[in-house]
Design a protein that fits this description.
The chain has 145 residues and is α+β, with helices and mostly antiparallel strands. The chain has a single domain, classed as 3-Layer(aba) Sandwich (Aminopeptidase), CATH 3.40.630.30. It has 4 helices and 7 strands; from the N terminus they run βααβββαβαββ. It has a 7-stranded mixed beta sheet, with helices on both faces. GO terms for molecular function: acyltransferase activity, transferring groups other than amino-acyl groups. This is GNAT family N-acetyltransferase. Residues 3-144 form the N-acetyltransferase domain. Pfam families: Acetyltransf_1 (PF00583).
Length: 145
C-alpha cells in the first residue's frame, strides 16, 4: 500500500474518491462543490495495486485548527491498518503545515473510528447534536509535545 497526498481538490482522483465515499457512507454522495469550498483541503489516499482503498480528508477550520473531516476504508480492506496509516500520515503532514491542534467529530454508531481516535491520542472535549438531530462527539489532539 502507498499513500498519495494531494493539497487542494483532488480532481485526478475525484471519481474514485466519490465511489469509495458512497461505499463507506451508505450511498451518500460527495459533491465536488463540497470539496471546492474547503480552505486548505488536504487529501490522503491509500492505494493498493493502483486502486483507492482508503481516504482521509481534512481542511483548515476557521479557528485555525485542522479539522479531520472525512475518511474511510473499503469494506474488503478493513482490519489491515489502513485507517491507522492514513491517520498517522495526516498528523505528520498537518504538523509540517504548522498546525498545533487537530479536531474531528465522531458518532457512536461508528465505534471503530471512536476507538481509533482515542488510540491515536485524541481526547473527547465536548458533544453536540447536529442539524440532522445526530449526536456527535468532538475530539481534539495536540500536535505539540
Amino acid at each position: 500500500m502507498q499513500i498519495e497526498l494531494v493539497e487542494g481538490v483532488p480532481y485526478q482522483y475525484l471519481s474514485e474518491l466519490q465511489a469509495l465515499h458512497a461505499h463507506v457512507f451508505d450511498g451518500s454522495p460527495l459533491p465536488l462543490e463540497k470539496l471546492e469550498n474547503k480552505e486548505g483541503l488536504l487529501c490522503l489516499f491509500a492505494m493498493k495495486d493502483g486502486a483507492m482503498v482508503g481516504f482521509k480528508l481534512g481542511y483548515m477550520h476557521p479557528d485555525h485548527v485542522f479539522y479531520s473531516w472525512l475518511g474511510g476504508v473499503h469494506e474488503s480492506q478493513r482490519g489491515r491498518g489502513i485507517a491507522n496509516g492514513l491517520m498517522v500520515r495526516q498528523h505528520e503532514e498537518v504538523k509540517k503545515l504548522g498546525f498545533q491542534k487537530i479536531r474531528t467529530y465522531g458518532r457512536n454508531q461508528r465505534k471503530a473510528m471512536l476507538i481509533t481516535n482515542i488510540k491515536h491520542g485524541f481526547e473527547i472535549i465536548s458533544t453536540f447534536v447536529d442539524a440532522k438531530g445526530r449526536h456527535k462527539i468532538i475530539f481534539e489532539k495536540s500536535l505539540v509535545k
